[in-house]
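Q: Give me the 3D complex with flavin-adenine dinucleotide.
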Amino acid sequence: MKGIVLENKILNDKYGIICIKSDEFAQNAAPGQFLMIRPQPYDYIYDPLLRRPLGICDINEKKGTFSLLYMIVGKGTKLLSKIKKKTELSFSEPLGTGFNLTTDKKVAIIGGGVGIAPMTFLSKILHENNEVDVFYGGAEEKDILLTHIFEEYSNNLIIATEDGSIGHKGFITEVFENSLKFNNYDKIFACGPKPMLKAVYDIIDIEKIEFEVSLEERMACGIGACLGCIISTIGTDPNSNSQKRCCVEGPVFNGKEIIWETVCKE
Ligand SMILES: Cc1cc2nc3c(=O)[nH]c(=O)nc-3n(C[C@H](O)[C@H](O)[C@H](O)COP(=O)(O)OP(=O)(O)OC[C@H]3O[C@@H](n4cnc5c(N)ncnc54)[C@H](O)[C@@H]3O)c2cc1C
Ligand code: FES
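A: Here is the predicted complex, encoded as structure tokens.
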């Protein structure tokens, strides 16, 4: 697919957000899905060779636009941060398996760092039919972005930073654990660093609360062909692990099925 960049805004020295016009993409994307994008203005430049996976941060179906929140970490995202308005970019259709949406439930969304990116889209959709609390953690104030979206599309927004520069001081998982004394959530949706996801898994009563996580494994093809994004899950055969492709069967998985020791080993 191709789309025209309407805006590419640098939010601070770590993050940017890019808004792209593509009716076809905007009409077909679901929360939790991702795309593979070439961070170059010309399709014939294959440097970097591989397209980069990014979660879908926001969709405006009426305007036919979508947004991607990116953290500038390496070559691809640096190039993306330099893309100018009106540039035509090339990207895949919406990929992967997204979140299973709920209705009439009390849910918590937990996002850490740039893992918050797919949660804005999710929060917007869930807020239509559910009570939604958002727990958003980062290392410092710079990591806390797009709060106006969560303020509009959640019942409560709770923020924590490790250095205490904004919100509670400490890990968002600590604040979340504390909140469980007062709240009975039906379902938890989480995306962020793997140790954060594992901490949530350890905190909740996994037999009673539904738990879906979005995993950001390294990806090469994004379409299930290279087997570069395999994760281990509990298979139907209790004696063997089931290997799943994060880009096709995920990136959203039932947190109960993941073998966390293998996912968190890096
Ligand atoms: C399904 C999915 C959704 C994602 N959504 C987002 C998003 O919405 N916003 C966002 O900023 N990033 C997201 N990521 C991560 C993003 O794809 C990588 O940060 C990006 O590909 C890095 O490209 P680069 O060329 O800038 O860095 P590279 O030069 O390729 O690498 C720079 C550094 O980033 C690390 N890195 C690369 N890929 C990943 C990864 N997948 N996970 C953790 N570390 C990585 C490398 O180890 C290296 O240390 C997502 C990844 C996946 C798989
Ligand atoms: S990235 Fe190639 S199979 Fe998942």
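A quick observation: The longest strand covers residues 2-10.
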